[in-house]
Design a protein that fits this description.
2 copies of one chain form a homodimer.
Chain A lengths: L6 H4 L10 H8 L3 H8 L7 H14 L5 H8 L4 E6 L4 H15 L5 E6 L7 H12 L3 E4 L7 H9 L4 E5 L9 E3 L2 H14 L5 E5 L5 H16 L9 E3 L4 H12 L7 E4 L2 H13 L9 E6 L12 E4 L2 H13 L18 E3 L10
Parallel strand pairs in A: 1-2, 1-3, 3-4, 4-5, 6-7, 6-8, 8-9, 9-10
Antiparallel strand pairs in A: 10-11
Chain A binds a DNA duplex (16 and 16 nucleotides) through α3 and α5.
Chain lengths: 354, 354
DNA sequence: CTGAAAGCGCTTACAG
DNA sequence: CTGAAAGCGCTTACAG
């Protein structure tokens, strides 16, 4: 088949130029408004017309110009991901999940890292959302918990979905992760291994999940008749270094805890380091359970027992909520399974020797 | 100051609606074309006029509509990052570097992971670039080495910058990382520690950097009078698992190598695992040097000696090349320092005991 | 150095 | 169910 056989050349389209809605209309013998209706899946098009126009669209390989549509709609086809989570693994998994949901929708993903300690945070987000007239925004923790940011999105009439460990908004704008459950599993695991003196290195209080995870641990232990000693609770910052500091203070106690649960894996590795420096062997002398199940959890020695959050799935589910109205679905009633963390048992926690 | 004092309300602008070029023109008492000239920094505007118009722009907080500009320019204000590197750390650092350069430019970053083994790779990239009419694209390895992808970008007249360990394109479209140098540093380090039987676990041949790093190692050893035994060279896949397999085969040799250099850190951790399983202690019984200097290099035990690539800087420099024409600069003559990897010496490689 | 007209490729609002 | 007109907010090409 030569170029001259294509519909494009038969219709006398300029080569090298993309076909427009006018070309489709002319060739299909309808008005451009009708083509527009077909593109936008309007029900007010006769089936026969729809088929005819669709055939021309496919034949020409026509795709509507996003800028022109955006200008007319006063809305772009870009989804923003605004995040302040410092873990590369978290960020990349989240991005991939969002992209999973966006695939085939014609929407693209624009990434926007931010820093909540930056005084210009809100004005920068405002400028970003307003300039790009974003189709919608996805907010993982902790920026999802920032009401000043949310206020701006509401004011700009920008759809959003928040991901958080507690319900902060209407169901159609929330994806709640059951962090209480994940921490509870970790707590039960340690209690069932016989541990009674259990240390907890929490995340920073800026993250709602820190308190939720602490609550999950506390409740699970209580369920087993074990009280969480508040003197064994230390606040970390979700970083390796903060894990080191917290572990030093916990392991300097006498008697020291026989097990430590950390709010994330980075801090668990800080515990590993301090234990090694003190000549303690994990898990023989100290059991450790982390949270996040980073790839390195299964690379370090001993392999780290950790709570896994399905981050990629979370990204996908949040994006699906954002797209639901476009697909004629009710985002509040989306049939999404609850996001449940699960404990991945490896070698860093073991039964307490009597 | 009340709302009624603002220029916007004095001029009778509708509240809640963003000011347009027409508002600026009317208030400044010029035509919209003149405002357009000011926005686009045309030299053909009298200084007095420029100042007057700029004042109104600032006063109104006017920012041009990106969709409308995009439609008229036939080009969006989006930079695409197309990548297939599987390392989350690499990806996030690269994104941050690109964003460093984009900050303040009004451009946004659209991420596009891809898979070179996907037969639809080229058509998907074409659709992405064509639909969004990208301002430009940045390509890290290995997709930067894919000529079919580059052909499409050329055909679509989409500016791009490639990042690679060898020069594959004109200087204004290339950021070359001196991987030969990085691997050579690793090689010299091991030779200087007295190692003679040195194993090399390379990356996949699909990555040009694999061969370049091997060459750097070989040349540095030769420089020290040490020959790289080709029987001690094994191809890995840049994954932990492939590092495990490669390490098994290398450490089963008799005599086994006294040191192993790996094409990346992931594979180095595979070596750690095998050594541990075999009862070999690093660095006493085996020295290991990695490449990438992932965050976990300083978390594992012993801390991993590794070659660091300034990935974030690379992202920034590549993006600066892409933006140079917009800033009236010549991208080929940009004053960018050469990208030089550097060896970060830690504890995983030590002097060979006689 | 400045401006009135036409156009970028779509959609909304209104008719029929 | 379908269409002609006007508009989204900018820029290009042409005058002056």
């Amino acid at each position: 088949m030569t170029d001259d056989d294509t519909t494009a050349s038969r219709a006398g389209l300029k080569p090298g130029k993309r076909p427009t809605i006018n070309d489709v209309a002319r060739i299909a013998g309808v008005s451009k408004k009708t083509v527009s209706r077909v593109i936008n899946q309007s029900p007010f098009v006769r089936e026969e017309t729809r088929v005819k126009v669709s055939a021309v669209i496919d034949d020409l390989g026509f795709t509507p110009d996003v800028q022109a549509r955006g200008l007319a709609f006063r809305r772009s086809f870009l989804v923003g991901l605004i995040y302040d989570n410092p873990s590369p693994n978290y960020v990349v998994n989240m991005q991939q999940g969002v992209l999973d949901a966006l695939r085939g929708s014609g929407l693209e993903l624009v990434v926007h890292p931010c820093d909540r300690s930056n005084p210009a945070l809100v004005s920068e987000i405002r400028a970003f959302v307003e300039r790009q007239k974003l189709f919608g925004v996805i907010l993982p923790p902790s920026v999802s918990e920032d009401e000043a940011v949310i206020d701006v999105l509401r004011e700009l009439d920008c759809p959003y979905v928040r991901i958080a460990s507690v319900s902060l908004d209407a169901p159609e704008r929330m994806l709640v992760t059951n962090d209480h459950l994940g921490a509870a599993e970790a707590g039960r695991h340690l209690a069932d291994l016989g541990h009674r003196r259990i240390g907890f290195i929490s995340g920073p209080t800026l993250f709602r999940s820190s308190a939720v995870r602490g609550g999950g641990l506390r409740d699970a232990l209580a369920e087993r008749g074990v009280a969480l000693d508040e003197r064994l609770v230390v606040e970390g910052a979700y970083t390796f270094e903060s894990g080191v500091e917290a572990a030093k203070s916990l392991l300097a106690l006498d008697p020291r805890p026989t097990a430590i649960f950390t709010g994330n894996d980075e801090m668990a590795l800080g515990v590993f380091k301090v234990a090694r420096d003190m000549g303690l062997e994990i898990p023989r002398d100290l059991s450790v359970v982390g949270y996040d199940d980073l790839p390195m959890a299964s690379r370090v020695w001993p392999n780290l027992t950790s709570v896994r959050l399905p981050i990629r799935d979370m990204g996908r589910m949040a994006a699906e909520k954002l797209l639901a109205p476009m697909r004629g679905l009710d985002p509040a009633k989306l049939d999404q399974p609850e996001v449940r963390p699960s404990l991945v048992v490896r070698d860093s926690a073991t039964a307490l020797k009597p």
